[in-house]
């Protein structure tokens, strides 16, 4: 069972939908999802990657392209 806030839950459901419902067994309530035990680590990894993409600092790209 995974406990999370609504925004994280929406991301987890999106990941599950994009992967043919391979992760979530049941949506229990607004804060809990029942997830396949064998898929938890993969789901966490995909969530971390999704969060990294969504929360990317736009100044990071600007700074990497600057000449010193």
From TrEMBL:
Q: Which SUPFAM superfamilies match?
A: TFB5-like
**Where is it found, in Gene Ontology cellular component terms?**
transcription factor TFIIH core complex; transcription factor TFIIH holo complex
Question: What InterPro entries does UniProt report for this protein, alphabetically?
Answer: TFB5-like_sf, TFIIH_TTDA/Tfb5
Q: Which GO terms describe its biological process?
A: nucleotide-excision repair, preincision complex assembly; transcription initiation at RNA polymerase II promoter
- A Pfam family it matches: Tfb5
Its subcellular locations are: Nucleus
Q: Mainly localized where?
A: nucleus
Taxonomy, superkingdom: Eukaryota
Keywords of the record, alphabetical order, are: DNA damage, DNA repair, Nucleus, Transcription, Transcription regulation
Q: Per the similarity annotation, which family is this?
A: Belongs to the TFB5 family.
Q: What does this protein do?
A: In NER, TFIIH acts by opening DNA around the lesion to allow the excision of the damaged oligonucleotide and its replacement by a new DNA fragment. In transcription, TFIIH has an essential role in transcription initiation. When the pre-initiation complex (PIC) has been established, TFIIH is required for promoter opening and promoter escape.
Q: How does it assemble?
A: Component of the 7-subunit TFIIH core complex.
Protein name, entry field: General transcription and DNA repair factor IIH subunit TFB5
- What lineage is on file? Eukaryota, Fungi, Dikarya, Ascomycota, Pezizomycotina
């Amino acid at each position: 069972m995974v406990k999370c806030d609504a925004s994280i839950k929406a991301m987890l459901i999106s990941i599950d939908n994009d992967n043919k419902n391979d992760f979530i067994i049941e949506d229990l309530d607004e804060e809990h999802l029942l997830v396949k035990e064998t898929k938890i680590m993969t789901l966490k990894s995909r969530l971390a990657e999704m969060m990294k993409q969504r929360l990317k600092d736009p100044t990071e790209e600007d700074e990497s392209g600057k000449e010193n």
